[in-house]
């Protein structure tokens, strides 16, 4: 299962400074899949309206988003590589890691189930069959 984490970068990561002043705005480095999902179009406008904090989104690959956080060029990262996220926090670049969402894979087909996969617990096995 793909875990997507929200990592809030610390005010002073290793020899870096936050890239923006939260009273004016923050930079969110995230994956292209998160931006492409439309989620940010739904959650950011109410956040910005409620807090007065503008969010600039930079959509890149997970590695690039993490690097932006490490370099102090992002205030928040939203990525999906648990091992890299844990290392990011362990190295002192971030704090307060939260699980935000996960992927769920569903295989759909006709009710008659001609492939004979109904009830299988493994998507990989169902796709092989």
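Q: What amino acid sequence fits the structure above?
A:
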């Amino acid at each position: 299962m793909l875990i997507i984490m929200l990592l809030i970068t610390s005010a002073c990561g290793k020899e870096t400074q936050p890239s923006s002043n939260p009273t004016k705005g923050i930079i969110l480095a995230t994956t292209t899949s998160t931006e492409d999902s439309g989620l940010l179009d739904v959650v950011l406008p109410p956040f910005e309206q409620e807090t007065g904090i503008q969010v600039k989104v930079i959509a890149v690959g997970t590695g690039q988003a993490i690097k932006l956080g490490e370099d102090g060029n992002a205030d928040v990262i939203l990525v999906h590589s648990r091992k890299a996220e844990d290392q990011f926090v362990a190295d002192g670049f971030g704090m307060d890691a939260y699980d935000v969402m996960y992927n769920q894979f569903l295989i759909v087909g006709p009710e008659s189930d001609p492939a004979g996969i109904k009830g299988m617990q493994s998507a990989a096995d169902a796709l092989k069959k």
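Q: And what stands out in the fold?
A: The longest strand covers residues 94-102.
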